[in-house]
Design brief:
The complex is a heterodimer of chains A (290) and B (259). In chain A, 77% of the residues lie in helices and 0% in strands. With 290 residues, chain A is an all-alpha fold. In chain B, strands 6-7-8-3-9-10 form a six-stranded mixed β-sheet, sandwiched between helices. Chain B is globular. The chains are: A mainly alpha (290), B alpha/beta (259). Chain A binds chain B through residues 10, 13-14, 17-20, 185, 187-188, 190-197, 201, 205-206, 209-210, 212, 284, 286-288, and chain B through 55-57, 74-77, 79-81, 83, 85, 87-92, 100-101, 104-105, 127-128, 130-135, 148, 152. Bound molecules: adenosine-5'-triphosphate (ATP) and magnesium ion. Chain B: One of its GO terms (molecular function) is ATP binding.
Chain lengths: 290, 259
């Protein structure tokens, strides 16, 4: 997302192209004697260092608060000990696996359907007219409000949990896909048609790649929604899972375990988001600006 | 003999709030095979609409547009179009852009590659065949778009202000290159521009349009020899023609009231 990363990507492209002129501003007398680009230095390295410093400060403040301030607040050490206990007896692994499975299944089904429906709505005015009222309506209903309905209709197994996560992912990402299809540059479609492309080819070779950036943004939103629905979905008579574990701990006033759950959810969510961001960069690096 | 492109009372209207707006109010114009015709006129007089009709991207509301004697029913690879805003597929490299039209045919990969490389070479982009459009300058993008149109070997080139966004030097270079290729391969070219000098320099005939409603104002023959050179560009004959076109563009009788 930063302009530095974009610059680097552009420079890679230019320098790897054979016979190409060096990029503007590049030294012509060999890189060895060239001063380092100050912009790259100033912005790049310190940011990561700053991030780490911030994390360290956060941990320090937390430890301090736990040690002398807030009543009953467990410190980082206690939480770390609890985490390794839970890891040792396999509880945390089991919870992570159960939660990840629910989120991934719900997210994948939800965003896959969102892509299909979004494309149909963007491409066929009839489909738009048919789907729009339902999507607009369900978007105003928080996914969590569907839980009672899901339990009554789908019982208390895995299905209602995945269904709620699925709805959250679907509803939050379908609009992005739809918007992406609508926003495809009209001249690109014309350019393909005058080269002999028929509707099918226009759709596959122009509309899909052109709306890829929107779809990926939609998927990131969908993932966020799926993940944030997880804990509540696991209210439905779960036997394992991070959300379940935290609720269970709540009844025993087990703050250590609650913290372990919170941090695990945060870290896993961050990792998944970064993975999608990476995919987004790779798939949409052709964009002029972002 | 049938005309290459033929407009017969071609009309295009658009629905607006109170009634209809006549973008093009009945154009009759014939363009012969291998002819180079430029179109100039004030903004909004329907130049793009005219070109779009020949391309099959804009449907006439009345009248007829035909190519090779057959009514135009849609776009097709026999008519290459070059847009002002380049319209390159940004996710494809130069080569893949140029190959786009060829991939829609059953042409074997080797021949496709050879054809694409030839077109890329023709516009001088060989060193950038694997570059993405975002890394190209405006002039290079437009050359890539021209190569993409050449690759499918259309009989007609329809160009809508293709050099409008370029600096003067690049524009002159691309004009000369276009004339070179036209002299060799003799496609029929319909070229829209707002630049009077460019219109005269390139064309055998300049079509001057008027606005509200869009229509053909005058057609001016350019009796200058090819190849067109700097000498011709600076000649008195050229200046006289340019003045004549300039006059009919900028001193048009006021449009006949409401469109
Ligand atoms: N989709 C549309 N709906 C309504 N009006 C339109 C539409 N497309 C074009 N017009 C109108 O038709 C007229 C002719 O448009 P056109 O684009 O052909 O003009 P032009 O001569 O190419 O202008 P320019 O030199 O500015 O490119 C304009 O007045 C424009 O407002
Ligand atoms: Mg125009």
């Amino acid at each position: 997302m930063s302009s530095r990363e974009r610059n680097e990507a552009t420079m890679d492209l230019v320098t790897s192209r054979k016979d190409a002129a060096p990029p503007a501003g590049a030294p012509s007398d060999g890189a060895a004697t060239a001063p380092p680009d100050p912009r790259v230095r100033r912005r790049g390295v310190p940011r990561l260092v700053l991030n780490l410093i911030a994390v360290a400060i956060g941990l320090g403040v937390w430890a301090l608060l736990a040690a002398r301030g807030v009543h009953d607040l467990p410190g980082p050490v206690a939480v770390g000990r609890r985490a390794s206990q839970l890891l040792g007896d396999g509880t945390l692994e089991g919870d992570i696996a159960a939660s990840l499975r629910r989120v991934l299944v719900g997210f994948l089904l939800g965003t896959a359907l969102a892509v299909v429906v979004g494309f149909l709505m963007g491409w066929y005015p009839v489909a738009r007219g048919l789907f729009e009222p339902y999507i607009q309506f369900f978007r105003t209903v928080p996914p969590l409000a569907l839980i009672p309905l899901a339990v009554v209709l789908l019982g208390i197994g895995e299905t209602p949990k995945i269904f709620v996560i699925f709805m959250a992912a679907f509803l939050s990402s379908v609009v992005a896909t739809f918007q992406g299809v609508l926003d495809v540059d009209r001249t690109l479609i014309d350019a393909a048609r005058v080269l002999g492309a028929k509707d099918r080819t226009v759709f596959l070779k122009v509309v899909i790649p052109a709306s890829a950036p929107f779809i990926l943004v939609g998927m990131r939103i969908g993932l966020g929604a799926a993940w944030s629905t997880l804990v509540a979905a696991e209210l439905i008579a779960a036997q394992e899972g991070l959300g379940f574990r935290m609720q269970h701990a709540e009844t025993y006033y087990d703050l250590d375990t609650i913290f372990v759950g919170l941090i695990t959810i945060g870290v896993l969510g961050l990792v998944m988001d970064r993975l999608l961001l990476l995919a987004e960069r790779r798939l949409t690096g052709w964009q002029e600006r972002r | 003999m049938t005309h290459k492109i033929s407009f017969r009372d071609a009309v295009r209207t658009y629905p607006v709030k109170n009634g209809t707006f006549t973008a093009l109010g009945g154009v009759t114009l014939d363009i012969e095979e291998r002819e180079f015709v430029t179109v100039v006129g004030p903004s909004g007089c329907g130049k793009s609409t005219l070109l779009g009709m020949a391309a099959g991207l804009v449907e006439p509301s009345a009248g007829e547009v035909s190519v090779d004697g057959r009514p135009v029913t849609g776009p097709g690879p026999d008519r290459g179009v070059i847009f002002q805003q380049y319209a390159l597929f940004p996710w494809l490299t130069v080569r893949r852009n140029v190959e786009f039209g060829l991939r829609l045919t059953s042409m074997p990969a080797r021949e496709r590659r050879a054809r694409a490389d030839h077109a890329i070479e023709l516009v001088g982009l060989s060193d950038f065949a694997d570059a993405l459009p975002k890394t190209l300058s405006g002039g290079m993008k437009q050359r890539c778009a021209i190569a993409r149109a050449y690759a499918v070997d259309p009989e007609v080139l329809l160009m809508d202000e293709p050099f409008g966004a370029l600096d003067a030097l690049t524009r002159v270079q691309l004009q000369d290159r276009l004339l070179d290729t036209w002299a060799k391969e003799r496609r029929t070219v319909l070229f829209v521009t707002h630049d009077v000098e460019e219109a005269v320099y390139l064309a055998q005939r300049v079509v001057v349009m008027a606005a509200r409603p869009g229509r053909v104002h005058t057609v001016i023959d350019v009796d200058l020899p090819y190849p067109r050179t700097e000498e011709i560009r600076l000649s008195a004959d050229f200046a006289a023609l340019r003045n004549q076109v300039w006059h009919s563009v900028y001193h048009q009788a006021p449009a006949n009231a409401d469109a």
